[in-house]
Write a structure and sequence with these properties.
11 helices; D-amino Acid Aminotransferase, Chain A, domain 2; D-amino Acid Aminotransferase, Chain A, domain 1; 361 residues; alpha+beta; nine-stranded mixed sheet; 39% helix
Length: 361
């Protein structure tokens, strides 16, 4: 009896083993077939093309965001292009793989390019700090920027100027790059929500600390902390992440400065030790100083909550009121939780000043 049970048990194991091997064989055959297909695709994708064929394939490649690209300039070419498929940058340019470069974000509105000189001055200061010698004079960079904005054929748009270490290798040493790169691109202005200035912005304390002092005042292309802050805001469903240092001192937003109007009517701005002084903030300080008081000092959370108004300043939106911070309403009286009269007044003054001084395109 025991012998029969042993035989039956052995037979069950045998047939289980057969089924397992059969299924395993099917799986291996399926994997082998897939592998063959992958190998076939790889062989096709890895085809070595001559220059003409490669250029044809490159021009057919998918180009996300192409509808936003209006016109561009590459100093290696020395001319302006308008086909987004041609907007390319050498991967061995150190601006790509080391973040070794500078950039400026400008706006043109109603056919006028705003505060070009201020942006060129900051670009020049950054170039001196990084030891980058541009391939042409800064005056010529300004002329190129104007020409690219005009080539957009739109009255409203944004402009980016990139000054890079240049192509030459994939190491970290600047000595690889014999000549700096210069790229200028005009893009469509991002549409702002209709209630931006009436509803204002929501802000919160970011988990990302301010940049080190020696980097903060250089508008370089290493913007990973700013990227983290933008993602942080998106994940929270809020508008603006704002950094604070380990002493609780206000830093900046991802692409903007924060300032406030205190209960005594003083325009209080952050010190510039660990932030990038935005061209709009600097211009706002000059405008307010003509008729009011402006001070720079460390700003803490309690200063924001006690302020009459808190504002965000940036080139594209000028001045926008911040209605809440860390889920607490900001402001006082009839403008509690919404932009106040100072935010609206400063936006209008900035707009008027920029239009009056802007370069006609």
């Amino acid at each position: 009896m025991c012998r029969q049970k042993e035989i039956l048990f052995t037979e069950k194991l045998f047939w289980k083993a057969i089924v397992f091997l059969w299924r395993a064989g099917r799986t291996l055959s399926h994997l082998a077939a897939n592998s063959s297909q992958i190998d076939a695709r790889n062989k096709k994708n890895m085809e070595i093309l001559d220059s003409a064929a490669y250029l044809t394939a490159l021009m057919r490649a998918e180009r996300p965001g192409k509808s936003a690209i209006l016109a561009f300039y590459d100093h290696r070419v020395g001319a302006i292009g308008t086909d987004p498929a041609h907007l390319l940058i050498p991967l061995d340019d150190h601006i790509c793989h080391r973040g070794d470069g500078l950039f400026e974000s400008l706006c043109f509105r109603d056919g006028r390019l705003f505060v070009l000189d201020a942006h060129l001055e900051r670009l020049q200061n950054g170039a001196q700090a990084l030891g980058i010698t541009p391939p042409c004079t800064f005056s010529e960079i300004g002329e190129i920027a104007i020409a690219v904005a005009r080539a957009s054929k739109l009255a409203n748009g944004d402009l980016r100027i990139f000054l890079s270490r240049g192509p030459g290798g994939f190491g970290v040493s600047p000595s690889e790059c014999p000549r700096a790169g210069l790229y200028v691109v005009a893009i469509r202005a991002k549409e702002q929500r209709p209630d931006l200035y009436t509803k204002g912005l929501t802000a919160f304390t970011s988990a990302i600390p301010p940049k080190q002092e020696y980097l903060a005042r250089i508008k370089n292309t290493n913007y990973l902390p700013n990227v983290f802050m933008a993602k942080e805001a998106a994940d929270k469903g809020m508008d603006v992440a704002v950094s604070f240092d380990d002493q609780g001192i206000l830093g900046e937003a991802a692409v903007a400065n924060i300032a406030l109007l205190d209960c005594e009517g003083t325009f209080v701005c952050p010190e510039f030790s660990r932030i990038l002084p935005g061209t709009t903030l600097l211009h706002a300080m000059r405008l307010v100083a003509k008729t009011g008081k402006v001070v720079q000092k460390p700003i803490r959370h309690e200063d924001l909550f006690a302020a009459d108004e808190v504002v965000l300043l940036t080139s594209s939106t000028l001045c926008v009121g911040v209605r809440s911070f860390d889920d607490k309403l900001l402001g006082r009286g009839d403008h509690l939780g919404k932009p106040g009269p100072f935010a609206h007044m400063l936006k209008d003054k900035l707009w008027t000043s920029y239009c009056e001084s802007g370069i006609l395109l």
